[in-house]
Design a protein that fits this description.
This protein is α/β, with parallel strands linked by helices. The chain has seven helices and twelve strands.
Length: about 270
């Protein structure tokens, strides 16, 4: 089961906090695989392999424009997040998923699955997107060398089998903001958006970001072979304190520290 929430616009600090909280819930068996879908105010993020030189704007310019910069533990280099961009943070226990060969899914299989979901999402609007060997992400005109344009960036972190961070898919993003960086550290490829690539007569089909999030969640379910359930709110997710099915090597006993943090610890009984 994949439970997904659309949260609207969320500050980056709050999104990091939510990911940590839900990761603890998934690890403890208190939540199913969760897909958070949202957008961010303008922000730059530097992954584990990022080079600060790939941020072309000075600290003063970023401050004037109100653009924060975060160093985080996902893979990849520098990327931009902003309005009109669909952000997906899948917090999945890979031990509950299988790859195409029926074996337990690994991080590379998971990234390929995310790419496939975004490729299918693009295809809904008549936009042909694909992969470039050796480069993570989703690209338009993927077979045209330097003319290929990235429409979806991907970078994840995996700890004890559970994923965090995820993808950024440009829907109606203002692409001028990418001039602040060398996107993903790749200088010889451009970026694009669904709005730019779709045929003009179909732009009205894009709808709002929430409708795009619903489409993306459906494709995630199809690619990963899991039923998808929309959750109304974070409060509703917190109310779901029952495990669905633990992974085969997940302990059934919930660690006391997680109990304490989540407020689910039981008072001791007396004889």
């Amino acid at each position: 089961m994949i439970e997904f929430l659309y949260l609207g616009r969320v500050d980056y600090d709050e999104a990091l906090r939510l990911q940590a909280e839900i990761t603890s819930m998934v690890a403890a068996g208190l939540a199913r695989n969760v897909l958070l879908l949202l957008e961010h105010p303008p922000v730059l993020t530097l992954g584990r392999n990022a080079r600060r030189a790939n941020v072309l704007a000075s600290d003063e310019m970023l401050q004037r424009r109100g653009i924060a910069l975060h160093e985080i533990n996902r893979g990849g280099d520098v990327t931009y997040h902003g309005p009109g961009q669909l952000i997906g943070y899948p917090i999945f226990d890979l031990r509950t998923l299988k790859n195409s060969k029926g074996a337990r899914m690994g991080p590379v299989d998971f990234v390929r699955g995310m790419e496939e979901a975004l490729i299918r999402l693009s295809a809904e609007f008549g936009v042909a997107a694909g992969r470039i060997p050796g480069l993570t992400g989703v690209w338009c005109d993927a077979d045209r060398g330097v003319h290929a344009r990235k429409i979806g960036a991907i970078g994840i972190h995996v700890a004890r089998g559970i994923t965090s961070h995820g993808f950024a898919f440009n829907v109606t993003t203002d692409l001028r903001d990418f001039q602040l960086i060398v996107p993903c550290g790749i200088a010889d490829h451009g970026v694009t958006s669904l709005e730019r690539e779709v045929a003009p007569e179909r732009r009205t089909e894009l709808g709002d970001l929430e409708s795009m999030a619903n489409r993306a969640a459906r494709h995630f379910g199809q690619v990963f072979g899991e039923p998808v359930l929309a959750v109304e709110s974070l409060a509703a997710l917190h109310d779901r304190k029952a495990a669905t099915y633990p992974a085969e090597d997940t302990p059934l006993r919930i660690p006391a520290e997680v109990d304490r943090l989540l407020g689910t610890a039981k008072a001791p009984t007396r004889a």
